[in-house]
């Protein structure tokens, strides 16, 4: 019984659970900015700002999945660097490509 | 951050993880990183074509059901969390818990597929398909390739669910569970970018 409780605690009160909640929260924020009440309150902002913010949030989420769900936080430096470079590189390229079309 | 407390928990675990290690076989990472590079080219090609015909892309995007996209994002995020928790349970040799978490994770993946099929059939009933315009060509192609990855991932999760019955967690099992989980998380993270790219970009 005690072992089961300790396992539940180990699984639920964990960094992974906090990360999952944060990922769900960020998803809801993106939704709110585009479709919900948030869209009303930020109507005066240029759409390109909102889209850029949504892309940046998406890549922050991707990095959280890589580090804490794929467990790359505990991987050798080379593998971690490779994936960190992918996140920063692809995020920058996506933003640059998107911006070049809105100017 | 709670990094130190997580490390403390790991050191208390019966089957501790080495301080620094590659999750799964090194080979699976060549495949995962390669797949991620291919998808990053997909993202850029889409944005490039979007600029050539902004009006069509903006207009077509309005017909997508944002709520399906959000629901599918939440399903995959939850599935990833269940699968990483299953892996932690395996490390503690809690095979029964691990199996239940994997089954729930796979069910979230099945839910994703069901939403996708509803979404596709709504589009097809409305007379929209791959040939309608460039936006829908990309929409069906990218989400279709991603859906293929979801199906492969579900196959991998099913294999792992059966493996929990062996009630062992050897070095070889570690490779299977960590590698399979990493592939499933990749399916999740690709969707995290595809969703704003197809549904949200303004």
Please outline the helices and strands.
The complex is a heterodimer of chains A (103) and B (202).
Chain A: H1 2-12, H2 15-34, H3 37-41, H4 47-69, H5 77-102
Helix pairs in contact in A: 2-4, 4-5
Chain B: H1 3-12, H2 26-52, H3 54-61, H4 66-91, H5 95-125, H6 134-163, H7 171-200
Largest interface (C-beta under 8 Å): A-B, 51 and 57 residues
Strand content of the residues of chain A, in percent? under 5%
Q: Poorly predicted ranges of chain B (pLDDT <50, ≥5 residues)? A: 1-15
Integer average pLDDT of chain B: 91
Radius of gyration of chain B, whole Å: 19 Å
Total strands of chain B: 0
Shape of chain A: flat
- Counting helices, strands and paired strands, the structural category of chain B is mainly alpha
Uncertain parts of chain A: none
> What separation lies between the terminal Cα atoms of chain B?
35 Å
Question: What portion of the residues of chain B fall into strands of 2 or more residues?
Answer: under 5%
Helices of chain A, by number, come to 5
Task: Give the distance, in angstroms, between the N- and C-terminal Cα atoms of chain A.
Answer: 63 Å
Order of helices and strands of chain B: HHHHHHH
Tell me roughly what share of residues is in helical segments of chain A.
over 70%
Structural class by sheet pairing and helices of chain A: mainly alpha
Write the H/E string of chain A, N to C. HHHHH
How would you characterize the overall build of this protein?
The complex is a heterodimer of chains A (103) and B (202). Chain A contains five helices and no strands. With 103 residues, chain A is an all-alpha fold. In chain A, helix 2 packs antiparallel against helix 4 and helix 4 runs antiparallel to helix 5. The two termini of chain B are 35 Å apart. Chain B is elongated and about 55 Å long. Chain B is an all-alpha fold. At the A-B interface, helix 1, helix 2, helix 4 and helix 5 of A face helix 1, helix 2, helix 4 and helix 7 of B.
